[in-house]
Amino acid sequence: MTYLNLVNNVLRRLREDAVLTVANDTYSTMVGDFVNDAKEIVESAWDWSALRTTSGSPLTITTSSGDFTYSLTGSGDKGKVLNIINDTSNLRMEYQTQNWFDDKFLVQTPASGAPEYYTYNGVDTNGDTQIDVYPKPDGVYSLKSRIVIRKTALSSDTDTLAVPSQPVIHLAVALLARERGETGGTSTAEYFSIADKYLSDAVALDAQKHPEETIFYTP
Question: Is the pLDDT of residue 150 over 80?
């Protein structure tokens, strides 16, 4: 669903006229802001299938000898690594803590070889997530990953939403109902309850595609 479609869906539910562009007037622009607020909340609620990707520039890293810090270009600061494969060495890299990496790099003398482990290391100057790898690469390796990339704010009328639209629409309605102070029959608390129901149902439907992430196994 496009940004304009989302805004008009919200406007109609608030008994307002639809617009031809999000920037039509002050109120429709404000609705657009609340739509983006709702979008961010919904995107952060779950690692949605639609946000998981294995293609594109941030997902294939080509190492160079001696360099152990790499940016996931385009991932932003909310990117989440689901797995990383050292495709050159045919092995799945394991996550380790920053303390573990500090021990390897600062307390001990770091080894060089095929990368087997990774950890997060803040963000770069572009705001993209960085990772450290260990051992320090002793040459060129192709590291491929699956990442959850949460989208930037919608801005153009034709920008499209990746996550389910109903939770975003109804959460935006709830936020706007609270802002305007009257809802014409439905309380703000009820709007939030409706939005929560749409969100929980959407998460449940998407989560069944990844049952291994929602089932707790006792060793």
Answer: yes
77/131 same-domain check = yes
Contact indicator for 160, 1 with CB cutoff of 8 Å: yes
- Regarding whether 144 and 175 lie in a shared domain, the answer is no
Q: Which structure tokens are listed for 150?
A: 């949460």
Same domain, 140 and 206: no
pLDDT for 59 equals: 73
Are residues 113 and 177 both part of a single domain?
no
- Number of compact structural domains in the chain: 2
Residue 155 domain-assigned?
no
Which of 107, 122, 148 is a domain's end point? 148
What is the phi/psi pair of residue 23, to 5°? -85, 25
- Look at residue 183 in the predicted model and tell me its pLDDT: 58
Q: In whole angstroms, what is the distance from residue 152 CA to residue 189 CA?
A: 28
Closest CA to 155 of 45, 44, 2: 2
Range of the domain at 10: 3-48+163-213
Using a 10 angstrom Cβ sphere, with 0-12 exposed, 13-18 middle and 19 or more buried, the burial of residue 30 is: middle
The string of DSSP letters for 43-80 reads HHTS--GGGEE--SGGGEEE--TT--EEE-TT--TT-E
Residues 63 and 143 in one domain: yes
One-letter identity of residue 48: W
pTM for this structure? 0.85
27-70 pLDDT, tens digit per residue, is 999 999 999 999 999 999 999 999 998 655 447 899 999 999 99
pLDDT averaged over the chain? 92
